[in-house]
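In the current project phase, we have settled on a layout for protein records. One protein thus recorded is set out beneath this paragraph:
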Amino acid sequence: MYETSSKVVEFFKLSNANKNLAEENTFLLNRVTELENTLNTLTDTVNSNEWKTVRIPPERQYDYIAAKVIRITTHQLQNYITINKGSLDSIKPDMGVVGDQGVVGIVEAVSPHFAKVIPILHPKSTIVTKFKKSNYFGPLVWDGQDYRYAKLNDIARHVKFSLGDTLVSSGFKSFPEGIIVGTINNFDIRESDAYYNIQVRLAVDFRSLTHVKVINYKNYQEQTELEKGTPDEKTISKKDK
């Protein structure tokens, strides 16, 4: 009885330790990002002949919000993840979600205390990735088969790559550039095909995923409004005509 009781207490202590460790890791990651951006501005200043103020590029203006996975599916065609942070914690739809191993998915819906994440393991998920070596990019999609693998599409036959090559986030939309997505596990191409059939082994082990980090890209709304075309822009365009 005492042994069982001790194991229960130890389990809850371990759970709290994991939570504290995840929050501490997120804090340190935010500090590293901040220091890297500061270092880049200092480097630009040092290389210049005169002092000047160098601003952080808008695509580098982001930080991370730690969250715990409270529900996850991996065996369905349309999988999803629920995390324990919501709008009260500044979580918004379309935010990217990553784990310690790499890209996880994108926030789809938010309530005050929770958020629903569409992971890579979902037919609606299309994450643009690129080869770390060559920067050639293509969309990553899941075929609904194995939670460990996905497909990389639209890679033309003239592109050179090898088994084991690393794929990272392209920097488009919800993710900063350079976050690992997976590695090339297998590929083939027929004589009549214009594009490769490529299988990617995902970096994240979704069946052991317990903690994630949500990317708070501070200029996301400005970028999406510009790309969609704001009402003011449309009005100006009509007047010009």
In short: The first helix runs from residue 2 to 47.
